[in-house]
Specification:
15 helices, 2 strands, 1% strand
Amino acid sequence: MTWCITTCNFDIDVDLLFQENSTIGQKIALTEKIVSVLPKMMCPHCLEPHQIQGLDYIHIFPVIQWLVKRAIETREEMGDYVRAYSISQFQKTHRLPEDEEFLQRKDKAVRTVLDLLDVYKPQRKYRRQKDAGELLDEDSRVHSTLLEYGRRYGFSKESKQDTVDQRKAPLASGSQAAAPRMADQSDQGHLQAVEEMRIETLMTSMAAMANEEGKLTASAVGQIVGLQSEEIKQIVSEYAEKQSELSSEERSERYGPLQQHRRAVASLNKEIQQKTKELVQLQAKYEKVKTGCDEAKRNLTEATEHSEKLVRELKSLDELEEQADISLLEKLSALVTTNEKLKQQEQEFRTHCREEMARLQQNIEELNPVSGQDPEEEKERNQLIEKQYNTDREKLQKIRLLMAQRNRGIAILQRKIDEVPSRAELTQYQKRFIELYSQVSATHKETKQFFTLYNTLDDKKVYLEKEVNLLNSIHDNFHQAMSSSAAREQFLRQMEQIVEGIKQSRIKMEKKKQENKMRRDQLNDEYLELLDKQRLYFKTVKDFKEECRKNEMLLSKLRAKGAS
């Protein structure tokens, strides 16, 4: 228990390394320390010191079980902590081959990643002119910034949704017969055209960077030339319009009404094929359900007809029952039930007879090839078998009687063996006698201490009474002695005698104290010698037990060899 508590990082003031043959007081102190620490550990079981001292295993076992579990959990936690600490300490001064390989590859990988980031970093291709004016719309500012880095995105979702909402009303009121897919495609084409125009408008206010060759706008050319900027801008704007017209023509060719019509027809054909497949499946299900419904209807009509027939028969039987005699009906019903029971019993009896007959026939067929002898020979053989059976039975009875006698002898010997105590029992008796002797010696020592204390206090009381009487006599005779010089001298002589007597008593007590001290030291030396002898005795007994165990093992091996 002390080991488990110290393993759980709780302190108990006890020496676990060597504390042999503790006295009863030390054992009680240790048990009290254990009991005081258990509540601090939040132990769910209660335990008292006398239960540990008296070896109350019923109450000690759950506490020990809980302590062992707690110690195992603490060792696991501390094991992980110590393992992590040891790994960290190892990694401070040592490296594994895998770590060295990782460090060698680390620099190369970092350089590669930095090179990739440098190669694929965003590069600014255009710059918005200062005189282009400020964009008020946030969406336009975002698109302008993205275009500066060469990123072109499609139309925004918000503009798409607004345009679709604006076009929903005229489409719903005016052309309800048009296909929804064609309307969506036309809306998408229109929105793309609007977005392209918007991007081109933003690009007119952009100037190419120094590293972009061959992509100069009108503003860049005007800055380079410095002359006729307005004409150059006008030419560039016309070029942008022509380019937008060409792009719109390409889009119209790509997204023309013929292509849209073909796509709408293809999608509608696919929908028609899918709907026809679903129609065929639904028709098959309908036919199956219809046949099941017809069959259920036929079964229902048959059941209704049969129930009506049974109702009519029951009514006729009720009428006959009302007309007939009640006692006669009861007799008939009883006879009918008995008849049914008899029929059932007869049927069961017949099946049982058939099974028994089949079994007997099978036995006869099995015995016929074996018994190919005459009846007389078979009778003689049966007599011999019976005679042999009787003799064997008598032998068995005799053997049982002998076995009973042998069992009684074994039981008597077992009782005699049980009366002799074994080595474990003798060891247990020895432990109990030692504990009893320890308790008796502790009680004797305590009683002796009480007697010594009583005698000391009694002597102290006597000396104090003498001192009080002496002081009282001095006090009473002091005034009378001081009245004359002769009385004063006599009083002083008496005081000197008293002081001399006290000194003699003190010397005697000092001498007695020295004698007791010398006796105590002598007894302490004897006690230490006896302790050494006791340790030697215990060691000798332990060695003797070990040798006895080895002797028993060797004897058992010799017996096994002799038996084999």
